[in-house]
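Aim 2, interim progress: modelling of the zinc ion-bound target.
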Amino acid sequence: MSKGFPSVMTRLIEEFCKMPGVGVRSAQRMAFYVLEAGKTDVDSLTSAISEVKKNISFCKECNNLSERELCSICSDTKRDSSRICVVEGPSGVLAVERTGAYNGLYHVLLGALSPIDGIGPADIRVSDLLARVGKDTVKEVIIATDFTTEGETTALFLSRVLKKSGVRLTRLSRGVPEGACVEYADVGTLQRAFEDRKTM
Ligand code: ZN
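Predicted structure of the complex, ligand included:
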C-alpha cells in the first residue's frame, strides 16, 4: 500500500488505516505528522492512547464510558432515575448532555440492530436494558437511537420488547433530520427533538 516507504512507516500507516473512517491517504498524512512532530507531542499521543486503554472501561450499569465501575451520571444522586434515555453509543450521551434538556439516566446500546450485517439483539446491550426497565423506579424510556435505517430498526424493536413493561415509551421527534445521527445533531435541534418527544 505504501511501497517504497521503510517498513516501520508502512506498519504505522497500516495501523492508522484500521481506524474507522481513515483511508490510506489520511493514514499517510497521520504517519507523516508523527514523523515530523516533536518528541513531546508524540510522547503525549502515545501516552494518551495507553491511558485510555488502561483507565477507561464501560459503566457496569449503563455502558457509558467510565473511569470507575459506575460512570459519573449513574453515580450522581441528583439525576432523575425514573427516566432512561437509550442511545447507540457514548457520543450520544455527550450530545444529549450538551442540550441541557435532560436530567435522567442513560442506557448505551453499544451498537444498533442491522439484520443485513448480521447484528441482532444479542449483539447489542438490550438484555441489561430490559433488566433495568424491570425495576419499579423507571417510569419512562426515551429512545434516542439515530434516524438511520439501523437506528429506526432498533427503535421499533425496543418499542416492541418494552411495551409489556408498562413504562412510558417515547421517541425523539422528527426535528432531527432523517438519516441523521444523534451525535451530530446541533444542540438546538436536539433540544427541541427532546422536548417534543412522542409517545410510541
Ligand atoms: Zn453509567
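The pocket of zinc ion is lined by residues 59, 61-62, 64, 70-71, 73-74 (CB under 6 Å). Strands lie at 57-58, 65-66, 80-87, 104-108, 140-143, 168-171, 198-199.
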